[in-house]
Amino acid sequence: MAQQSILGRIAQLARANINALLDAAExxxxxxxxxxxxYINSIAEAEEAVAQTIGNLRMxxxxxxxxxxxxxxxxxxxxxxxGKAKELTAGSPAESERxxxxxxxxxxxxxxxxxxxxxxxxxIAQQTDVVAxxxxxxxxxxxxxxxxxxKRDELVGRAKVAEAQRKVTDALKSINITDPTSELARFEDxxxxxxxxxxxxxxxxxSSLDAQFDSLDDLAEDAEVERRLAELNK
Length: 234
What we know:
This protein is mainly α and about 230 residues long. Helix content is about 90%, strand content about 0%.
């Protein structure tokens, strides 16, 4: 996976507008679950690519250090050979020239390694910048993943609340809810009618009893009349 491709993918995922995606989704919960899986897979792929990029950077840094060390070693050898050549200049010109040639060889190798160090400066700087951007992008992706998870949990919670409310509403629709005070008033009215009926019956019963006593009084009066009439007829 190319570095630019990695950077572009990380940037695209990190900038994703979750709310806009949810608004366009037919089933937001399923979409979030899929997005979470995709993010986890993308993060794993990105982490692998970033690890490889960091590994390449560390290799270049190691090559630069080794080249720098080699350049210093060959510089020291060139200095030693030049010093020996100087010592032998008067006594042994041929040996002096041989050490001069060794110094030249050492200097050429020193220059070669110094050029390697110089050539690695720009790539190391570029790779260091890329690694920093990749790490920042990965951090953004991890943050977006947490946002996705929180959004999913929030959505699931809201869905459960909505489902509970719907069930309560459906249950209420199936029940004929009446005002309990009106039921009491109706019951009280029925009792009053029963009480009135009982009072009426009692009054009727009382009237009938009075009539019976009145008839007894009439019989007693007739008996008195007959008794007195019998007295007169003696």
